[in-house]
Write a structure and sequence with these properties.
It comes from Paramecium pentaurelia. GO terms for molecular function: asparagine synthase (glutamine-hydrolyzing) activity; ATP binding. About 40% of the residues lie in helices and about 15% in strands. It has 23 helices and 17 strands. It has helices at about 15-25, 90-95, 110-115, 215-230, 245-260, 285-295, 305-320, 325-345, 355-360, 370-385, 390-400, 410-420, 440-445, 455, 465, 470-485, 485-490, 490-495, 505-515, 520-525, 545-550, 560-570, 575-585; strands spanning about 1-10, 35-45, 45-55, 70, 75-85, 130-135, 140-145, 155-160, 165, 180, 185-190, 195, 235-240, 275-280, 300-305, 350, 405. The strands form 3 sheets. A 6-stranded antiparallel sheet has the order 2-3-1-9-8-10. Strands 4-5-6-7-11-12 form a 6-stranded antiparallel sheet. A 5-stranded parallel sheet has the order 15-14-13-16-17, with helices on both faces. Helix 5 links the parallel strand 13 (about 235-240) and strand 14 (about 275-280). Helix 8 packs parallel to helix 11, helix 16 (about 470-485) packs across helix 19 (about 505-515) and helix 22 (about 560-570) runs antiparallel to helix 23 (about 575-585).
Length: about 600
């Protein structure tokens, strides 16, 4: 993982261009604190191409893994990548028969894939998460693209002279271009400036409703194989465990791979797997995450924070995540704080549970889906937008501290497999007990050798921004009311005519964001739509109550959630003040 910056056809002297490259690349150094490299290639009289890379050492920790690369067999091909290619280890033996490698970095194979399959098709042969940029001086062409679902961020824009700027984060180039945009996932651009789609799965077809049957053993085997591939690397790794079913399944698979000898911790400088969770004192996530970690014998770290501490961090979280979306900031803040603590332990990689809810309909509002067609179409909408929300959060909040996050549920082949299943099996009323993500839970139910303790496996959904502690959101609203006067808010449409804040919390976040990124195009790069409990705006049509209460937190559908959480905690005699607040204060 790293920060990348590319500029094609920038005008100026060599010194001016190199100085600019250094200054812009440095803005992203938090993403790659280990090493830097800049390559300047002459494109014409006083015109240059720039490739700049800020490296986080993950695979091949030596200097041989520094990017940008030049293809050993063709020094006119330059390339760099932000991300990880999980099929590297399986395809490298065949490529070694034909090409020379200078390192053990997974990214080095990108140039060989380009030579082998050509500029239009080599994207399909990269299995992983990535933003990739390649320059071929043999024919004066260049290419830049983004992975299938947008796990890795990429922004682009043109300056007044027509030079193309690309960077991992908006802050790298927002003040250099006329208009800044997020680069679309599953697409690439070349020197013609046309953005072309390279990822065309069947599930992108909105009118195709799949009819695939359920095979629980097959589902289990496929996801185990995904985690097996995505946990590979040379640097120490850890696990984010929220105590929910998704991250707990990932943790359970890792534990079994270690027990089976498929993961050798000693080769990565580890004695034990470290797991992490954060929340307010007494929050649900801390309680259940510790249960999971203790079950597997992980070295667990429960980090706590106060509402006041979290509020202090919000302005820098907005700067690093480059968004003013409510739910993203609420969830990013504790994650950002947690990663600061993780960095001190020397961990560079953490596996997460992001994306499962978008594949299986795990959010509580899916209980109201009227039929299988609308259920499936909402999944498509959620997946297509995920790079603007949870994937953005997990990447930027963590790489602000040099922590790479890997979300196995977003693996390309796994998404295609799960999205081929008939949505009738994902609906809440398909099985007993009626609970979201039943088929995933059932696939990993193993009573003899459990992946996950039963009480966790069947625990109901908890949004991260709620699970860290229910008073967190209340504290944000209270602080926003203190900072933003009624008079200020009454002028919201004048101050911010684009994406006008709908409440004082949004106004506060927008104010901080626009101070750092003042352009209209920067504002338009942030999603702005009404939502209930993380729904898309379209799903508000499912229930009249949804239309009247567009609260983006999980408590907006709390009547579904309260009884389940109360029952679990009562059984264990673990009801805390934080969990009591759920049923006392927040009803639809």
């Amino acid at each position: 993982m790293c920060g990348i910056l590319a500029i094609f056809n920038i005008k100026g002297t060599y010194i001016e261009v190199r100085t600019l490259a250094y200054d812009l690349s440095k803005r992203q150094r938090h993403r790659g604190p280990d090493r830097s490299r800049i390559i300047i290639i002459e494109a014409g009289p006083n015109t240059y191409h720039i490739l700049a890379h800020e490296r986080l050492n993950i695979v091949d920790l030596s200097d041989r893994g520094r990017q940008p690369f030049q293809l050993v067999d063709d020094q006119n091909i330059y390339y760099m990548q932000n991300g990880e290619l999980y099929n590297y280890w399986s395809i490298k033996p065949d490529f070694e028969k034909k090409y020379k490698f200078s390192s053990n970095s997974d990214s080095e194979i990108v140039g060989m894939l380009y030579k082998e399959y050509g500029p239009n098709d080599f994207w399909n042969h990269m299995d992983g998460m990535h933003a990739t940029i390649l320059l071929d001086m043999n024919n004066k062409t260049y290419y830049a693209g983004r992975d299938h679902i947008g796990i890795i961020p990429l922004y682009y824009g043109y300056n007044k002279d027509g030079a193309l700027f690309l960077s991992s984060e908006l802050k790298g180039i927002h003040d250099q271009v006329v208009e800044i945009k997020q680069f679309p996932p599953g697409h690439y651009i070349d020197q013609t400036h046309e953005i072309k789609k390279w990822y065309n799965p069947l599930w992108h077809n909105f009118d195709h409703i799949p009819t695939g049957e359920i095979n629980f053993q097959e589902m289990r085997d496929k996801f185990i194989d995904v985690v097996r591939r995505e946990v590979k690397g040379d640097a120490p790794f850890g696990l984010f465990i929220s105590g929910g079913v998704d991250s707990s399944i990932v943790a359970g698979i890792v534990a079994k791979l270690i027990k089976n000898g498929e993961i050798d911790l000693s080769k990565r400088g580890m004695r034990k797997v470290h797991s992490f969770c954060i929340g307010l004192e007494g929050s649900p996530d801390l309680h259940f995450a510790r249960k999971v970690a203790e079950y597997h014998g992980f070295e667990h770290h429960s980090f706590t924070y106060t509402v006041e501490e979290g509020l202090d961090y919000i302005p820098e979280v907005i700067y690093h995540t480059e968004t003013f979306n409510n739910t993203t900031i609420r969830a990013s803040t504790p994650m950002y704080m947690m990663c600061r603590r993780i960095k001190a332990l020397g961990i560079k990689i953490c596996l997460t549970g992001e994306g499962s809810d978008e594949l299986f309909g795990g959010y509580l509002y899916f209980h109201k889906a009227p039929n299988r067609v609308e259920f499936h179409q909402e999944l498509i909408r959620k997946l297509n937008d995920l790079h603007k929300y949870d994937l953005l959060r997990a990447n930027k909040a963590c790489l602000a501290w040099g922590i790479e996050t890997r979300p196995p549920f977003m693996n390309k082949s796994w998404i295609e497999y799960v999205m081929s299943i008939d949505p009738k099996y994902k609906m809440i009323n398909a099985f007993q007990p009626q609970i979201e993500k039943y088929i995933l839970r059932k696939a990993f139910e193993d009573l003899e050798n459990p992946f996950v303790p039963q009480e966790i496996l069947w625990r109901q959904k908890e949004q991260f921004s709620d699970g860290v502690g229910y008073s967190w959101r209340d504290g944000i609203i209270e602080r926003a009311n203190q900072l933003i006067s009624d008079q200020q808010f009454s002028q919201a449409s004048t101050t911010y005519p684009l994406s006008t804040p709908r409440d004082k919390e949004q106004y506060w976040f927008r104010q901080v964001y626009s101070n750092a990124f003042p352009s209209d195009s920067a504002a338009l790069s942030v999603p702005y739509a009404k939502s209930i409990a993380c729904s898309t705006e379209k799903a508000l049509e499912w229930d009249e109550a949804f239309k009247k209460n567009t609260d983006e937190s999980g408590r907006a559908v709390l009547s579904i959630h309260n009884d389940a959480l109360k029952e679990i905690l009562q059984e264990e005699d673990k009801i805390t003040d934080e969990s009591i607040k759920v049923q006392d204060h927040f009803q639809l």
